Give the backbone structure.
Amino acid sequence: MWRRHSIAARKASWDAAKSKRYSILSKVIQIAAKKWADPKMNPSLDLALQKARYWWVPRDIIDRAILKWSWQLEGEDLQEIFYEWYWPWWVALVIKTLTSNTNRTAQNVKLIMNKYLWTLGQPGSVLWQFTEKGIIITNWKKKIENIKWKEIESILPLNKEEFENEILETSASDFIIEDWVVVIYTSKQDFSETKKQIENLNYNIQEADIQYIPNNEVSISDIEKEWLDNLISTLEDDEDIDQVYYNLKE
């Protein structure tokens, strides 16, 4: 009885998170498309469409976003707004929002942050502590063989030694291997090239994005971390919040 309820609860939670991610990615596509509607000429739009594919966003959601950016469907006037906050324990937090109603979003964010006793910073007062970097996640490698005139593709588990040798030939700046998953870091400028290099080495790209990475990290107590985890969970439930970045040492 408990197990069935637990599985159902987890599924409901996953469905809600998936639905929100689809909505956010639709907004990301619309905002990126304002610059140029052709992904071949617009790296931001190309990345947005790739992110949608990584998250298995249904084609009809992508198509609706495309129609909205081409004005064939009525769309929202979306904006990308950042909010920067300080906590007493030297924790810095940046909230990235995608919204068509800045007053509503600002009010919702301030209501949550004030409840958790954070202080609102001026634009740039927190963001300088972070650097935009490319993040590429891979978990296995493809092997393609020609057998009896047929191209056969198989999946190989990650070979850590082989990967470490191959990654040195790319423009990646750093990487971390955790439980057979690799997180690769690049500069923002080298992101696209590094991603191509990883793909050319036949590694499966599970996810790729440009994110704000803290320049320095701080440590806090377990109780304070639990308080922060609850805050971040509350923020991530808001439909207008895309990403939450912070400088906490994991």
Observations:
- The two ends are 35 Å apart (CA to CA).
- DSSP finds seven helices and nine strands in the chain.
- The longest helix spans residues 2-33.
